[in-house]
Amino acid sequence: MIIVNSPHNPTGSVFDEHDIERLTALTRNTDIVILSDEVYEHVVFDGGIHHSMACHPALAERSVIVSSFGKTYHVTGWRVGYCMAPAALMDEIRKVHQFMVFSADTPMQYAFATALNNPQSYLGLAEFYQQKRDLLAAALQKSRFELLPSRGSFFMLARFSGFSNESDNDFAVRLIREAKVATIPLSAFYSDGTNTGIIRLSFSKDNDTLQEGARRLCLV
Fold it and tell me: Mean pLDDT over residues 212-217, rounded?
């Protein structure tokens, strides 16, 4: 199995045509299954395109695609998502799923069914979050952080190693204690806790909160 995630958390990177071609070549004439995490499928910036495994027949036939209603409709606390795969794979997934999850409650299912009939409820997500990405980036221009490009999702990476020798974990803890700003050290995403000198910022907040958070980070 190969596990992929695009748009990617935490880096904000997005698969392009070249990535799809490489993945197709890598899996051709194999029995490799692809698990594709596409929960940020509607959050791609700067006119970019989300390349779902479902849109590429050679990959669709071997892919399990997971996505999230919570991310799409701003209700992450509801914890409802969905899975798509070829019939043979779905048969096996259902065998496991029936022992892991009893049910999704009826009101949520009706709510999402209604929302899906209104494409405008999610087609504006890219513009909505791009405005927040740009607002945060502009507000941090005079900070000492080096901001790394975010092409999708609602996360942005910020490098601090140019002005601090702290581990990213220690730096994130200090930000909470001194600046009252919560970030995620990038090492949390590594199995071995590799120190990166980078933290993850989220811009899925109201604009006033983003401005105030940036103001505090500019003082670090």
Answer: 98
CATH architecture of 2-123: 3-Layer(aba) Sandwich (3.40)
DSSP codes of every residue in 81-112 = EEEE--HHHHHHHHHHHHHH-----HHHHHHH
Mean residue pLDDT across the chain? 95
Other C-beta atoms closer than 10 Å to the C-beta of 165 total: 9
pLDDT in tens, 13-23: 999 999 999 99
Residues forming a β-bridge with 18: none
Q: Where in the chain is the domain with CATH 3.40.640.10?
A: 2-123
C-alpha–C-alpha distance, residues 88 and 13, integer Å? 31
Indicate if the pLDDT at residue 102 is higher than 80. no
Does residue 103 have a pLDDT over 80? no
Sequence letter at residue 212: E
The number of angstroms, rounded, from the C-alpha of 18 to the middle of its chain's C-alpha atoms is 20
Q: What's the pLDDT score for residue 38?
A: 98
Residue 41 phi, psi dihedral angles, 5° rounding: -55, -30
CA distances from 111 to 52, 119, 125 (A): 25, 14, 18
Q: Is residue 7 reached through a cis peptide bond, with omega within 30 degrees of 0 on the bond before it?
A: yes
Question: What's the pTM value of the predicted model, to 2 decimals?
Answer: 0.90
CATH classification (class only), 126-217: alpha beta
